[in-house]
Amino acid sequence: MSVREIARTLDAAGVGSAEHDARVLAAHAAATGADLDELVRRRVARVPLQHITGVAGFRYLELAVGPGVFVPRPETELVAGAAIDLARAAGPEPVLVDLCSGSGAIALSVAHEVPAAVVYAVESDPRALEWLRRNADARRTAGDSPVVVHAVDIRDTPASLDGMVDVVVANPPYLSAGEVARLEPEVADHDPTAALVAADDGLADIRAVALTAMRLLRSGAWVVVEHGDGQGESAPEVLRSMGFADVRDHRDLAGRDRYATGRRP
Is the pTM for the entire model greater than 0.85? Predict the structure, then answer.
């Protein structure tokens, strides 16, 4: 099949990025010797492109992903960028904690782009932890600073970090079950439900992030938390209700409300 034929096939199946995906699948088959027709059949079945190729690009990194871990999104690159900027401004050896780390996209990007940072990644899901550790090992082998992984619920982030952290960043679950049901099959059928759905109109895990961040952060330090595009008022209000100051909401490149920041007084 030619790239043009693959693109037409994917477009007919409802794949929104048909031309891009056709090129990626053809290149992947050429590089690995995989059966191109089988790759196309999987994509027509709406298996995520990243599951087929085994990698997801995120900022300057390629991360291993697959069943059991949330595929990082381009929108989260802005969240990581905000955390990186705050870490750089914090001093010569900033301490950053990435809650709900998943594949480690944010934590590993900080370790790559701020080599002097001390970075912790917190994740409790066993399948996601496998991908996180795999990516952390690969980046350490590539020469990046090591990321310390804590296999605990974010609420149980070690007390030894209390008051010691310069930046807490998180991309927590923030959707309701009803919202997930309306998403494209690549997300609804393949991303882990635990990484998508939160109770209390999607705010329960954002509250847990805020509560944990208030404990971890030193005075004057910052939290950065991603949220849904319908939570541009409610998510910042969670931070305010927990006692954070200078709370602001920020938009993504499409102009949608995307993440909130706040400073521990």
Answer: yes
